Amino acid sequence: xxxxxxxxxxxxxxxxxxxxxxxxxxxxxxxxxxxxxxxxxxxxxxxxxxxxxxxxxxxxxxxxxxxxxxxxxxxxxxxxxxxxxxxxxxxxxxxxxxxxxxxxxxxxxxxxxxxxxxxxxxxxxxxxxxxxxxxxxxxxxxxxxxxxxxxxxxxxxxxxxxxxxxxxxxxxxxxxxxxxxxxxxxxxxxxxxxxxxxxxxxxxxxxxxxxxxxxxxxxxxxxxxxxxxxxxxxxxxxxxxxxxxxxxxxxxxxxxxxxxxxxxxxxxxxxxxxxxxxxxxxxxxxxxxxxxxxxxxxxxxxxxxxxxxxxxxxxxxxxxxxxxxxxxxxxxxxxxxxxxxxxxxxxxxxxxxxxxxxxxxxxxxxxxxxxxxxxxxxxxxxxxxxxxxxxxxxxxxxxxxxxxxxxxxxxxxxxxxxxxxxxxxxxxxxxxxxxxxxxxxxxxxxxxxxxxxxxxxxxxxxxxxxxxxxxxxxxxxxxxxxxxxxxxxxxxxxxxxxxxxxxxxxxxxxxxxxxxxxxxxxxxxxxxxxxxxxxxxxxxxxxxxxxxxxxxxxxxxxxxx
Length: 561
Fold this sequence. Notes:
InterPro entries: PG_synth_SpoVB, Poly_Biosynth_Transport, Polysacc_synth
Helix content: over 70%
GO cellular component, one term: plasma membrane
Subcellular location: Cell membrane
Order of helices and strands: HHHHHHHHHHHHHHHHHHHHHH
Mean pLDDT: 83
Strand content: under 5%
Number of strands: 0
Protein name: Polysaccharide transport membrane protein
Number of domains: 2
Largest sheet: none
Keywords: Cell membrane, Membrane, Transmembrane, Transmembrane helix
């Protein structure tokens, strides 16, 4: 057999495979997407739930300072998030995409070399961005000196997280989502344990401690969590080291790429990921630096009142809604290497199918989850914070906005997967301009809700532009999509109505201010509403479009004909 034939066989062996597993047989893109989404969704959901549950005791221990603490936490975290994304520099997603590309042509050694070069970049950008965040804190405080203390605490996490994120991207390039999901959960677990421990000892049961110091330690927990997540990834590397070595030794080694070219390749792929990856954070920063100025110009509310309003929409409601958005994030991460692989093969039909499947999976999970969150907004807000009509209304509205943000997360990842990074950035810039145009009038008219309205409008414009482009380039099966989503909306709306009836009905006899009773209301609404949705997607065979033969097995188990 000649060398070219061996190369062709190697390509066919690894194309569409998960090579870290001993049996590297092919599996369909849908099967890989489902498995990857299951791992990433589980990791994201459990992490988000854990990251929301801690709020209950945290708010209790901070007592009367809780809303002020949440506002300070959010101000610091929004700035930190932007610097963190700059430090990560889009490298994990770029590495995931490029490693998948090289694996598809049996150039495993080159993909591993790319990862090692990426490590040097991530360490360097981490050090630089951490230093800028730490020493630049006085210039970023925007009139609140307490923000300086929080940014100093957060700078330490910027040192570690880029390396952790890069390593997750490397495993994702091999289409192994388990390491990312497990490390994500352990990261959150370590973070929450540290947060609650320090909050308890600093604030005490009386809630009369130094609340600013308490918030700074709660944010320093990001560094502790990152160490935990990095440790888990190290264990996975030890587990797979022999397999990685084997793949490297048996690479085709047909491509010769210099170190400088590798760096250029990483940077060229990474820069657009910075902007797209920080899209939601950029919109939140626009809110942070304009909301108070606009409200001061059109109202006479005190700083304390504005901080409370800001905390409600930017932290309180957003924290719960991010549980729902994490569904979309999980699917987005899964789709990038699969699409990159199809792009490498030049398989336009496969790209079209994969994009359509991604949109259907998004609708299948996201729409009922968002409507369900809106239905239980009152007990959810009460459980995690306190009874508040304003908080409930904002959480309800933000739940609908989550669908728009989630769709952007998925389709922007699709654009990156098919190599349309620069165009995705251009579309986002248009959306950002739209956000700025609507920000002042919306906030002036609707205060906190106005920020959410301008965000929704901006991302709706971006979503329309991206979907239009993908359809023109690859074609989308809109007939299938419209039929599918029409049924999803019908069943999801039924779920919403049932959850609303259950919630309002139980509150006739229950205390709406009780956290324990709020938990019982949520449980009843979720079980009954979820059962309705599950029954009809199985009964109508809609679930078969997503999970295939597994749906038939589930029908038999539940005795649904």
